[in-house]
Prior knowledge:
The chain is of the alpha+beta class. The chain has one domain. It has helices spanning 6-15, 25-31, 40-45, 48-68, 112-119; strands spanning 34-36, 74-81, 86-93, 105-108, 130-137. The protein has a five-stranded mixed sheet with strand order 1-3-2-5-4. β4 (105-108), α5 (112-119) and β5 (130-137) form a beta-alpha-beta unit. The N and C termini lie far apart (36 Å). The mean pLDDT is 92.
Amino acid sequence: MADNPFPEWLAEVATDAIVVRPDDTTAEARGNMWSFGLSDEQRAAVGVTEVVDFVRSVVAARGRWLTERGSAPMRFYCWHDAQTGQLRFSLVSATGSGLPFECPIELVSVVRPVVLNFLAPTPESARAPLLVWVTFVP
């Protein structure tokens, strides 16, 4: 059985600096973006709960990083990039101009639909609108 990559990935993300540039949403989005892909073996070995727990742990870690530095709240957003097969997330300032997507998006209130698209992509998951889960941190 394949190893669960999420603990290792979380350790990497938790220690990474966050770019805070409220005047430049693009710099924040690019500087704070992470991408994760699973091999077929890993995809078969992990379930929705493990991926949701990973995303929530990342949110908590990013929130701790911001709190420790006295930073203003930021928007954490997560989506499935169907073209690359990756789960992606980033952060932008809560006071910024919005999310930096150039395609139609649909905000979802829970991360589960994004995770389902990541674990079992379908042709429909590659179509617009792109499902994006957003939460505020810290």
